[in-house]
Protein 1
Amino acid sequence: MDNRGYVMSGVSFLLVLPAIMLFMVFVDMTSTGIEGNSRVIQSSYVLNDAKDLEENIEITGKQVFKSEAENVVKTGIPLSNSRQSIKENMQIKMNQITQEVKDNNGIEEECNITSVSSSEDPFAVEVNSSIKVRKDDVTHQEHISQDITILDPQYPTPNPLPFIKCHNYGGVQLANSRISFGYSLSKYLESRGVENAAAYENATTPLIIKKCPYDPYIMHGRKEFKTLKNCIENGYFHESSDGSCFLCRLEGKGTCPHYGMETYIIPSPLTNISSNSTNLTFNTAPSSIDHVIFNDTPPGSGTYPGKKIIYLSEGGNLLILYLDNAHRQKYGFPLA
Ligand SMILES: [Zn+2]
Ligand SMILES: [Zn+2]
């Protein structure tokens, strides 16, 4: 009996052995499984953080474009190198953000703004950066190129150019989200010897850069100028290969080699001529496009004239523009 008992337990041990081995393998498998899972969680954590960082670069860009433009609006003094200035100020802000993330979440973030340049989209600025995110032993690194818009209504960005150009001629005023030139624009044109500069006494132009939705642009001159009227009332800007880009506007350049934008400069309305008024009126004056009026390189020669268009008669007021044939063609007006 005793011997048999030993034999039995030996046999049962042999029978149980595979089960024990299986169990050990299983335990090992689950523990590596857990490790693998935590690696997956960690790397998705890092990837999400890299995405957040990318969004932060975008927001920071918008904030800096706006504040750089607002500074120029305040001082009337152009930036000597807008790309460098935006790059440096974005870097300062990004350093603060990455430090905060490290302090709060223990994630190591690095962000280097490597360059800022004109984008192919005139309503955006190209920002290049390299980022690195590290959490424990998972690291993510990449180079990013972003076209960051200047059109986000949360960060309304003013057109700095008129403030620079008219700074030495009495400056400009702000009224109803428009720039009102008073006598400064006509004085500025006069100082350059431009003919009929007085046509721009009390002229206005939009303050905030907004993109015109009326595309194709030839709509502006059609249907009794209704589109033109809406465009002017809303203060829109148009794409233009002659108009300067946002970055060059910050440097006070009226034209530049980059694909840029243009907006109308609206002469003050004429009070109805039929009432025998002595209103100063011209048939020809500088063309009412900002890059034509602000093209002062070389002095005087860049501004060319346009013929008068009365686009609306409103309560005894005649709303007018002066336009050259190239711009008449672009916006669908009858040629002069
Ligand atoms: Zn328009
Ligand atoms: Zn430019």
Protein 2
Amino acid sequence: MLLSFPLHIVLSLVLGAILTTAHTVQTISAVGSKFFYENGTQFFMKGIAYQLTPHDPLIDTEQCTRDVTLMSELGVNAIRVYHVDPSADHRGCMDALADAGIYLFVDLDTFETQIEQGDPHWNETQFARFQAVLDEFQEFPNTAAVFVGNEVLTTKEGSAAAPYVLAAARDIKVYRDMKEYRKIPVGYSAADIAELRPMLQNYFACFEDSYERLDFFALNAYEWCGASSYTISGYNILQKNASGYPIPIFFSETGCNTVPPRTFEDQTAIFGEEMSDTWSGSIVYEWIEETNDYGLVSYGPPTDKGVLTIDLIEDGFTRKGTPTPVSPDFYNLQSQWATLSPTGVALSEYIKSTDAITLPQCPVPSIGWSVDPNSSLPTLGQTYTPSIPTETAGKGAPTNQAPNSKSTSGISHHDLDSVSVAGIASIDPLVLMSVLLCSLVGFTAFWL
Ligand SMILES: *[C@@H]1O[C@H](CO)[C@@H](O)[C@H](O)[C@H]1NC(C)=O
Ligand SMILES: *[C@@H]1O[C@H](CO)[C@@H](O)[C@H](O)[C@H]1NC(C)=O
Ligand SMILES: *[C@@H]1O[C@H](CO)[C@@H](O)[C@H](O)[C@H]1NC(C)=O
Ligand SMILES: *[C@@H]1O[C@H](CO)[C@@H](O)[C@H](O)[C@H]1NC(C)=O
């Protein structure tokens, strides 16, 4: 007995170490306008949107494991999940994904807590829900990033909601750092509205205070349909508007299906010479075949909703079981991705040029863009009240956020009583860079 007890401990330690090692996966971080693995190699996502079940597809380990196997065959290294239940156990699915080198991009909101274009507000209930998802997923090294919103703004009249999205990002970033979580990038997934996109994109990245900028911007774009081209599709405009952008940008949804079968030729542009220096890859919509007909795999033919079965059925589509590739779309995407592997730039090289990154000008109010970049972001609990424009409107508005001013301490986070950012907001970027470099050197040394 006396001997077997320590042996038992030793065994479990060894076993624990083996298990831990098995799930070791490098984290992803955003530096400048790019994502990097810990080893300094640039990360380009080949992703798919994965929402088998409306509330949480990451709790059925057996199902995740079956899907992950086929995802690996497809060449996937990232998934996007729109809705999760933060109180559920995600360990099994996250480990299955990690073992396959697959990263998670997860939305923080629910249908009840998403920021609304029609009634812009950002309150405690929403913030608490966003926190709960971050609390749950920050522990997994393969959580790549989080979204504070998906297509909140869908019309050019909706721009008043933009500051509320940015306020949510600010509060989540402050919360993340206060909790000393790793710097999981916080971003937004935008609808592709031509008359809104350039302004929105720049607004989210224009403020001097890094807490008032997104860590990345992503676009749901379905501009390239069938045998199109870089210029015909309009990707050249996307590229033009994104070149020089200071934070990572990528396609958080793509894969137009109006010209079947889908050939995914846009991937050659995204991962090719024209765009790969600016864009970090794409997430193809979507994994499961359902009514909208975007699926890459199917779990069986559509079923009568009334049919009794052990399989999970929703909207007449089975959402569980053995995934079968939808042909030829699945194979078309697989062949595209197989040939596309941009090397990008090594972090050690890239870091030398990040000093030269400049922020875009905050868009000035115009027709279709009503946001005054000089007014403070909404505070937690604030609700949008449309103001009647007058000659003096905005005169009394706080002007502590002059775009691109070199203010170092002008921004206060006075509204976040519960969280303190003292000392965080004022970290010099140079200091951050050296810390990063040191960690990189340390990491390399660790391997040698
Ligand atoms: C860094 O890690 C990635 C992902 O595992 C791998 O593809 C890449 O080859 C590694 N780079 C170096 C320089 O070892
Ligand atoms: C916050 O807004 C949501 C709707 O988005 C509402 O359901 C909730 O009651 C609000 N919470 C507070 C504290 O006002
Ligand atoms: C975006 O690109 C279009 C087309 O080239 C151009 O007209 C527009 O000014 C650009 N907007 C921004 C903010 O870069
Ligand atoms: C914002 O404030 C600055 C400095 O006061 C001013 O130059 C600029 O015109 C203002 N921008 C807008 C859009 O009002």
